[in-house]
């Protein structure tokens, strides 16, 4: 059912061996992968070109199955009230166990998500260990190390909010005795993430030439640090980091629906997105399945129809909010790109943000393989800034970035989306929470937003969510078994 990479558990998850992917000539080198050619780490890391290939491989891995398809849908999206399983009722029923909070530690998607993140961390650690010894341009070397720290921080952020305490590996193991680490207290993991992001932001440039579009920037490091600080309720830090990003020249893309289309990748609103492409004559390198697994089911150029919007999400928008139709493909509609959606089928709604026009489908390639996955965008930065200001008692200041987001959605139609004017902290908090929901819907933010806001029982309780347990998912049982007991299970599982 999937295109996934096979690998040895300890080699990838814990970092003894890295197989760095050889690349064909391409300006955006990390898009153009020949997965059949690999080089052992002991024979690698000799030249600047080796360092470049290693960094490119690290980015390429971000679009691998466990990073972008079923596993993150299960762990980062399916618990939300904004989504349902989708597809046919009998297919991939394990998603329902995430949605109903009945999942057990043996489910394969937990293990896939865990492995995907530690695979990213392994790539980063290989770079951080081996690139310093290469004789190469020192400025480029420093940048590569900063990029590796950003990716490592991004993966640990995904791990710690999903599982709580997780093994913290910041160096490669020296021998077999260091294969299996116990879980590290989440406070220490968060601290390591913050250190990596501070180091990265101090080195990374604000922009790149076209050849390096998609690499992590200073803005990406600061925006991710703001999000980390938001989870930790360090509101002064959230405000500081977002204020810096707001001075870097980002702006909201004028057309909300179009900002997610493949023709507008890496636009002025993009802070960091995972680069995906359809590479002619190379289906193996065109391996992203982010769009495919969520695409409209039952049409050529569509997809499998999983992770679909829920009726609750459709009802959450204010009357006339155009983001509703820009986020949700409704059965029977014609998309702005001219695709007619069948009036009958398994699902009444699909994710429009992952949608690729059917005319761009090429036989033999994954549907929608050219669709980037947006990780951080400027609207999120503005809403984090608004939330931080409000939590710090600066409610009047919070209204300014909030209005920027609403004004873009309003698109000049004064009859919809009136300005939020309240400066009552509690009322404004609710308004900001609601704005995050509709602005960032179907972008894998809602589930963990509700938990960090302390509203899990109120929002998810009717589906079985329990405080003291469901703030995190179970640690994969297979990882516990492979660790020889070094790993322990989360309470309640």
Automatic annotation (TrEMBL):
Residues 268-493 form the RagB/SusD domain. Gene3D superfamilies: 1.25.40.390. The keyword Signal applies. InterPro entries: SusD-like_N, SusD_RagB_dom, TPR-like_helical_dom_sf. One of its GO terms (cellular component) is cell outer membrane. It is found in: Cell outer membrane. Its main location: membrane. The keyword Nucleotide-binding does not apply. Keywords: Cell outer membrane, Membrane, Signal. Residues 50-228 form the SusD-like N-terminal domain. Belongs to the SusD family. This is Starch-binding associating with outer membrane. The lineage of its organism: Bacteria, Pseudomonadati, Bacteroidota, Sphingobacteriia, Sphingobacteriales.
């Amino acid at each position: 059912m999937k295109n996934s990479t096979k690998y040895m558990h300890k080699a990838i998850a814990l970092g003894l061996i890295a197989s760095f992917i050889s690349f064909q000539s391409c300006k955006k080198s990390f898009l153009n992968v020949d997965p059949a050619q690999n080089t052992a780490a002991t024979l690698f890391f000799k030249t600047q070109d080796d360092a470049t290939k290693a960094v490119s491989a690290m980015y390429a891995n971000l679009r691998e199955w466990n990073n972008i398809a079923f596993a993150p849908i299960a762990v980062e999206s399916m618990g939300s009230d904004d989504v349902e399983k989708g597809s046919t009722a009998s297919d991939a029923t394990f998603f329902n166990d995430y949605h109903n909070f009945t999942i057990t530690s043996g489910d394969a998607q937990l293990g896939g998500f865990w492995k995907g993140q530690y695979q990213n961390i392994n790539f980063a650690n290989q770079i951080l260990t081996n690139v310093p010894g290469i004789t190469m341009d020192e400025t480029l070397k420093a940048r590569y190390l900063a990029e590796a720290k950003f990716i490592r921080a991004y993966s640990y952020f995904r791990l710690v909010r999903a599982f709580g305490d997780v093994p913290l590996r910041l160096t490669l193991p020296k021998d077999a005795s260091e294969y299996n680490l116990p879980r590290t207290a989440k406070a220490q993991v968060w601290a390591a993430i913050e250190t990596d992001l501070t180091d990265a932001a101090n080195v990374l440039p604000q922009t790149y030439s076209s050849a390096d579009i998609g690499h992590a920037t200073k803005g990406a490091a600061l925006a991710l640090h703001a999000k980390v600080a938001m989870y930790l309720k360090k509101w002064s830090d959230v405000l500081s980091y977002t204020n810096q990003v707001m001075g870097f020249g980002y702006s909201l893309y004028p057309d909300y629906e179009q900002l997610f289309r493949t023709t507008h990748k890496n636009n002025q609103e993009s802070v960091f997105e995972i680069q995906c492409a359809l590479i002619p004559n190379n289906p193996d390198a065109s391996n992203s399945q982010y769009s495919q697994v969520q695409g409209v089911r039952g049409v050529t150029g569509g997809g499998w129809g999983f992770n679909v919007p829920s009726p609750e999400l459709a009802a959450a928008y204010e009357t006339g909010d155009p983001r509703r139709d820009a986020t949700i493909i409704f059965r029977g509609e014609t998309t702005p790109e001219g695709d007619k959606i069948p009036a009958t089928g398994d699902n009444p709604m699909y994710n429009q943000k992952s949608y690729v026009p059917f005319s761009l489908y090429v036989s033999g390639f994954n549907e929608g393989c050219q669709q980037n996955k947006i990780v951080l965008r400027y609207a999120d930065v503005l809403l984090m800034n608004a939330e931080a200001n409000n939590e710090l008692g600066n409610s009047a200041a919070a209204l300014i970035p909030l209005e920027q987001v609403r004004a873009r959605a309003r698109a000049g139609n004064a009859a919809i989306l009136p300005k939020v004017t309240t400066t009552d902290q509690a009322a404004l908090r609710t308004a900001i929470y609601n704005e995050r929901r509709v602005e960032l819907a179907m972008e894998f933010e809602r589930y963990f937003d509700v938990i960090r806001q302390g509203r899990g029982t109120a929002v998810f309780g009717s589906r079985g969510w329990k405080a003291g347990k469901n703030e995190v998912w179970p640690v994969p049982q297979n990882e516990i078994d492979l660790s020889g007991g070094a790993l322990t299970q989360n309470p309640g599982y």
